[in-house]
Amino acid sequence: MPPVDEYTVGTVARMSGVSVRTLHHYDEIGLLPASGRTESGYRLYADTDLERLRRIMFYRELDFGLDEIARILEDQQAGDDDHLRRQHRMLRERQARTAGLLRALEQEMEARQMGIKLTPEEQFEIFGTDTFEEHQREAEQRWGDTDAWKQSQRRTAAYTKEDWVRIKAEADANIAAFAAAIEAGEPADGPVARALAEEHRQHISRWFYECGYDMHRNLAAMYISDPRYTKTWDDIAEGFSQYVHDAILANAGSA
Amino acid sequence: MPPVDEYTVGTVARMSGVSVRTLHHYDEIGLLPASGRTESGYRLYADTDLERLRRIMFYRELDFGLDEIARILEDQQAGDDDHLRRQHRMLRERQARTAGLLRALEQEMEARQMGIKLTPEEQFEIFGTDTFEEHQREAEQRWGDTDAWKQSQRRTAAYTKEDWVRIKAEADANIAAFAAAIEAGEPADGPVARALAEEHRQHISRWFYECGYDMHRNLAAMYISDPRYTKTWDDIAEGFSQYVHDAILANAGSA
DNA sequence: GGTGCGGCCTCACGCTACGTGAGGGTCAAG
DNA sequence: CTTGACCCTCACGTAGCGTGAGGCCGCACC
User: For chain C, which bases have at least one atom within 7 A of a protein Cβ?
Assistant: First the structure.
C-alpha cells in the first residue's frame, strides 16, 4: 500500500477543510501549484503538496498574507525546524494576546458587577499590541500568587448579580459575626473565633479561589499589613483586622 | 473639568488603534456613526461611541463580519452582561483552539526529533472547527473504541465513492503485501513486516481515525480475538491474523 | 450505447474591509 | 498671514476568496 499519493482537488479539500476554490486560487497564484495533471486536465496533488498546504493553513490561521507565506516558505525551505519553532512562538504570542483580552474582559465583568467603571483609556489599553506582556506581568506581580489570581478571575467572571448579592451577604454575615465575637470577649484563639476563621476560609474557597491554610495565613498577613484592609476593617471595631488575623492563624495552626 | 467627551477622528484613532479610514468606513456603513459634527464638518465622537467601538474591535478580533457585528450590537442592545459573557465564551474557545494547535505542533516537533512521521490526516485533523474542545478532551484521555468509532463515522460520512475505491485499493494492496511477506518467509518482527504494519496504521489514520501506536496495539489484539476478523483473514493465508498482530506489536514496540 | 450524475475545468464578475492618494477646506501657532 | 497638522469627500485599488455560467470527464445503470 504505497500511499496512493495522488489526490484530486475535491479529495484534498475534504481532507484539509479548505474549499476547492481556494486550491484553485493557490494554484493560480503559484502558492501551491498542483504537482501534476491528468490527461484531461484534472489537478493532482501529492503528499508533499499536502504538507505544504498544511503549512499554508497554519500561517493563514495566524493571519499572514499569501504573499508573505510564499516568501516564508521559499525563504527557509531548508529549515523545517525553523518553521516549527516560528509557528510555535507565534502561537504562544497569540495565546498571550488572547489571555490578555480574557483577563481584561474578566476584570471588566467583575468591575461592572461591583459597580465600578473603568475609564475608556483603561479599556482600550488592552488592545495595544506591544503592551500585552507587560500588562500580564503587572497583573501577575500585583498578586504574587498567579494561580490564585487567575483562578479568581476565571470564576468570578461567570458570576451574576445574584451571585454577588449572595456573596456580599455571606461576607457581611461573617464580618458581623467576628464583630460580635470581639464584643462578647471571645479570645481570638478560642473555638468561636476559629470557627469564624474557618468560615471565612471556606467563603474564599467557595467563591474566589482554592484557599488552603497556607494561603489563608498569607491573607491574614496581608490583612494587618495592607492599609487598604486595615483602614476599612478597623472602622468596624477597634483591632478588628488584628483579631481576624490571629483567629486565622489559630485556625490554620490547629488544622 | 467635565470629561471632554468629544473627540475627533484622529484622537479616537490614536486612543483605539484603528485607522482614521476605518472610522470613516464605520461611519459610512452606519456601524459607528459619529454622534456629532462640528460646524465645519468634523466628526465628533462621544464616550458612548468609544464604548461601542471597543465592542466592535472585540468582535473583529474574533473575525466577525461587520454586518454580523452590527446585528449583534443591535440585537441585544439591552444586555451588556450578555455581550461580556458572549465575548468571554468566544475568547475561551479561541484559547482552546490555539491550545490545540500548540499541542499538535509540540507533538509534531517531538515526533520529528524522534524521526517519526505523522500521517497527513493526523496533521490536518487539528484544523476541524467544531470539535475542538471535544478533541482536546479526547486527546487528553486515551482513545477509547467509542471515540475512534465516532471520529471514523464523522470522517467517512463525507467520503465519496471515489474515495472508497481508493481506500479499498490501498487496503487490498496492504493485505496482498502481507500475504506475500508470509509466503516469502519474512519474520513477523522483521523490517518488512514492520513496515507493512506501519503502512497499515497510516492507512487507518489517513482514512478513518487517528491511530497511534497504542491504538494500533488494541486493534492488533482485536484482530486475533474477534472471530469476524480471524475468519476473513485466515482465509487469505494460514495464520494471517496472528502474523499481522505480531507485526503490529513489533512495529509499535520499536517506535 | 445513451443517459444521468457527480466531479472537474476555465473564465469572470462580486464582495468585504478597508488602503491609498487626490483635491481641497480648517485651525492653532508663529 | 502663512505654515503645518488635521479634517473633509470622492474614488479607485487590493486581497482572498465566493459564486455562478458554461462545458468537458468518467463511471454506473439501464
Answer: 6-10, 12, 16-20, 25-27
